[in-house]
Write a structure and sequence with these properties.
Distance between the termini: 65 Å
Shape: globular
Strand order of the largest sheet: 1-2-7-4
Order of helices and strands: HEHHEEHEHEEEHEEHEHHHHH
Strand content: 5-15%
Bound molecules: cobalamin, iron/sulfur cluster
Helix content: 25-40%
Length: about 300
């Protein structure tokens, strides 16, 4: 039995690699004891802002066995999106690099589906569900348990060999596997670069991000007006923000992604400040076809650009 588990785990990891995943680790499906009081405190302080979906399914979010029938193992995976390409006009409103190419939800879902198919083909009937982002699953907690890295003071999951510019996702399956050693070491040490650099002081304490102050929330998740207290503080970001990762010393180990779907759209990199300010809905639809930027809709992106312009 133990031999089977080892062989299956090895097979899953090698198939994940073939599909282009940067990491694959496996954790036992269990209750997230350490995270429970922290998530509760975060919600009590309203750090979710208007992301009310974070208030739902509290118990399921902390225990995947309540989310997926007969869940035994969490296969945690990372997909690299790092690129050194950048927007050519340095005064143009900025977009986070995770959104330069195609929507990662679609790219990752397709890969997870393929991985589950191979598992079923080579191991036998395995029940499993694929998760990326939106479901009540604490992606970073599982990645940490699966040995992929530690959660840094900027609250991103960081790997000592590859930095943090990668997405996380999971396959939750109903078979026992060979489990990786959870990451327990914290490699932040005395560093506070991310806390010092955050333009909106959203990292309110080491390891705690007040979501409602984060530029990523203000430019993507918030549907209402951006509060005036953030005037002059947005560091010219119009969609997401990379600051706390750009300054992180561990990101000097980031490697370029080779995912065709994530290659930046030419127009996105070449548009200048004036063109962004004058963007029409037609141009938006063309530039952001199948892009995560669609989440803000044209009106949201316009609001963000206008907010930056009026902030001077
Ligand atoms: C909600 C959300 C957001 C919110 C809130 C951010 C946040 N930190 O939670 C907003 C919109 C602001 C956001 C922004 C971003 N996000 Co986001 N987000 C999520 C989402 C959907 C849920 C995260 C969550 O559960 N938050 C709840 C809080 C309680 O969790 P937490 O902040 O991690 O809190 C933990 C720590 O604070 C810790 N803790 C608390 N107290 C203490 C004390 C001590 C001593 C210690 C050690 C720890 C500790 O315990 C808490 C519970 O685990 C996940 C996807 C998912 N399903 O997991 C993606 C996710 C976390 N986001 C991701 C990304 C890429 C981003 C951005 C970089 C995007 C961008 N460029 O604009 C920014 C980064 C901002 C940042 N510094 O966190 C990736 C992270 C990948 C990685 N390598 O870590 C994820 C996993 C999406 C994905 N599928 O890849 N995000
Ligand atoms: S993504 Fe930007 S605004 Fe959000 S915590 Fe990091 S540095 Fe601060
Ligand atoms: S910038 Fe420094 S403190 Fe922040 S996550 Fe990276 S190593 Fe940790």
């Amino acid at each position: 039995m133990q031999q089977n588990r080892q062989a299956y785990s090895k097979l899953i990891k090698s198939e994940a690699k073939k599909l282009g995943f940067l990491f694959c680790g496996i954790a036992k499906a269990d209750f997230l004891e350490e995270e429970a009081p922290r998530l509760e405190a975060w919600l009590k302080k309203d750090m979710q802002g208007e992301m009310h979906y974070m208030e739902n399914y509290f118990d399921k979010r902390l225990d995947p066995r309540l989310l997926v029938d007969d869940a035994k193992s969490i296969i945690s995976l990372g997909l690299n999106y790092y690129t050194e390409q950048a927007q050519s006009d340095s005064s143009a409103p900025k977009i986070s690099k995770y959104a330069y190419g195609a929507d990662y939800h679609h790219v990752i879902k397709a890969k997870l589906k393929q991985l589950l198919e191979v598992i079923n083909e080579k191991i036998g009937e395995v029940g499993g569900r694929a998760f990326v982002d939106s479901a009540p699953v604490l992606d970073k907690a599982w990645a940490k348990r699966a040995g992929l890295g530690w959660v840094g003071k900027n609250t991103n999951l960081i790997n000592t060999k590859k930095g943090s510019f990668f997405f996380l996702c999971e396959l939750i399956v109903d078979i026992e596997l060979d489990y990786d050693v959870p990451s327990t070491a914290d490699h932040c040490g005395t560093c506070t670069r991310c806390i010092d650099a955050c333009p909106t002081e959203a990292i309110v304490a080491p390891y705690i991000v007040d979501g409602s102050r984060c530029i990523s929330y203000l430019t993507i998740e918030l549907k209402d007006k951006i509060p005036t207290e953030f005037h002059g503080k947005m560091d010219n970001w119009m969609f997401g923000c990379d600051v706390c990762q750009d300054v992180c010393p561990w990101n000097r180990f980031s490697v370029l992604n080779h995912e065709q779907a994530f290659q930046p759209k030419e127009e996105l990199l070449s548009m200048n400040q004036r063109e962004w300010e004058d963007i029409t809905e037609d141009v938006f639809q063309k530039v952001f076809k199948d892009s995560p930027v669609k989440r803000t809709k044209f009106s949201g992106l316009k609001r963000n650009i206008e907010f930056l312009r009026s902030s001077g």
